[in-house]
Specification:
The structure is a homodimer. Chain A is an alpha+beta fold. The first copy, chain A, is 44% helix and 23% strand. The first copy, chain A, contains eight helices and ten strands. In chain A, the strands form three sheets. Chain A has a four-stranded antiparallel beta sheet. In chain A, strands 2-7-4-5 form a four-stranded antiparallel beta sheet. The longest helix of chain A is centred in the middle third of the chain and has 27 residues. Chain A is elongated, with a radius of gyration of 18 Å. The mean pLDDT of chain A is 93. Chains A and B meet through helix 2 and helix 4 of A and helix 2 and helix 4 of B. The first copy, chain A, binds a DNA duplex through helix 7.
Amino acid sequence: MNSVLGSIEGSELDALSQSKSCGMFKRGEVVFEQGAQPLGIYCVHSGKIKVHRSGDEGRDQIVRFAKGGDVLGYRALLAGEPYAATATALETSTICCIPRATFLDLLKSDGNFSMDVMRLLSGDLGNAERQIVNLAQKPVRERLAETLLALREVYGTENGPDGAISVQLSREDLANVVGTATETLVRTIADLKREDLIATDKKKIRILDHAGLTEVANVID
Amino acid sequence: MNSVLGSIEGSELDALSQSKSCGMFKRGEVVFEQGAQPLGIYCVHSGKIKVHRSGDEGRDQIVRFAKGGDVLGYRALLAGEPYAATATALETSTICCIPRATFLDLLKSDGNFSMDVMRLLSGDLGNAERQIVNLAQKPVRERLAETLLALREVYGTENGPDGAISVQLSREDLANVVGTATETLVRTIADLKREDLIATDKKKIRILDHAGLTEVANVID
DNA sequence: CGAGCGATTGAAAAGACTCAACCACCGTGG
DNA sequence: CCACGGTGGTTGAGTCTTTTCAATCGCTCG
């Protein structure tokens, strides 16, 4: 079931089941907050989460999205720092917390699990560095196109492959992923609509021309 | 000596010593190249290295610096991907390569070492995400100030605390750290000089007013 | 000495941001 | 049931930052 914790078995799984605590988070509720000390790691059972870091003058930057099967909060715990980001539910989500000690024991005792966590961190770091290059070198239009394609990858679509991207983000949220001002984001969305690359219905965005949007995204690599 | 490998001892240290291979790299020489398969990890014994990722239209973005005591190339190896970045020597450097298998064995057999590597990755990821926020939200001037302060942190200064930052970067390199065009970088450097915050001598940069530059940097956190 | 590369400067254009106003939708309370 | 207020979305105009293109300068290496 759970991508990273999937390999856990036997007595370790028991320890895990016993110590974990689960909870529900409604849209807008905070799972963990920037600046707080990490008490454990969070396994998303279902739902959608944004992880965002507050920067200059309160503006925040979304650095990651999570969905069912993903794990959150391990970076800060492993680095031995307070959280550098806040995790906020985008819709009703069920999330379990595995206490710090249980997680660390697991790492000590299970080499495969450690390996999984390292793979996870390495993947995240790779993505973060790609984002750095994008922010430094690509214009808003390209970054937006890439963001929409990535959101579709992560969250999928509703009712078939041509449906709307299955996540509800405000324009401000979207601007905070792309790294631009809300107004600029709105205008760029309008451009893409005018070119029939995407369509919007309420807050939902539908990709009409995947190939065209990919071209606009001008993806590096 | 070596920050991450410092805790290795006994038979593991022997295995490591026997399998590693060392080499010298002169300024401009490539240690490993974006796109290549990682054959091992690199321990910088001495010297200075830039790690850069090529992006849009050949422009590249420097994502990390390394010096003696640092380890490189573990991200790609752990993620099981080809290198996403190139490592290039900034000055004559001595670097050892620990073969892939030796490194992975070490991870399997030594829980503390695994833990060190996870801490390393977590720290890198934290830095990368901070850089993301900076690129998304701060103007060139602030990013440049922060970069200069960071370079001083990493590489130190020559002849006392008020000396020049101990690394030779071209204006283009510097622009590729800050994430801007070379011309913009040059102009911004000129601004900081005019304000007596820094001074330049050939390619070397000296920080004249650390407090003032810190203020300009407007560091988040 | 000349070629060439890196650094610098200037000027014009493009991209993105800010400020301000307006619109549309939604839930609330009268 | 409807008026109201509030929030989020959209649009316009002007400004500022940053980029781009072009030209010049200075130094170093053959």
